[in-house]
Amino acid sequence: MIFRMLVLFLSATVFSTTLFSASIAQDDKVENKIASENLLPSSTKAWFSVPDYARMCTQFKKTEFGQLTEDEL
């Protein structure tokens, strides 16, 4: 039980940190953004991009995990 709560907490922390980082990046203008080819090392295996942050947040809140993060209990 404690392990599941710890995993859930860590998952939520990582996800919220990712969302926060994405929200900061979303505020920049296109000309000020660094291209991923220049930012990430050539050893990078995968990455994801969120072109519409507001829509992603809306869709995330509709998921079970999103509803769980909104639950006060």
Protein architecture, described:
The longest helix is centred in the first third of the chain and has 26 residues, at 2-27. Helices cover 63% and strands 0% of the residues. It is built from four helices and no strands.
Cα radius of gyration in angstroms: 15 Å
Extended strand count? 0
The end-to-end span amounts to 15 Å
Biggest sheet features: none
Q: Which structural class fits the helix and strand makeup?
A: mainly alpha
Tally the helices: 4
Helical content band: 55-70%
Mean pLDDT: 76
What would you call the shape? flat
The arrangement of helices and strands along the chain is HHHH
Write the layout of secondary structure elements.
Layout: H1 2-27, H2 36-39, H3 53-61, H4 64-70
Summarize this entry quickly.
It is built from 4 helices and no strands. The protein has 73 residues and is an all-alpha fold. The longest helix is centred in the first third of the chain and has 26 residues, at 2-27.
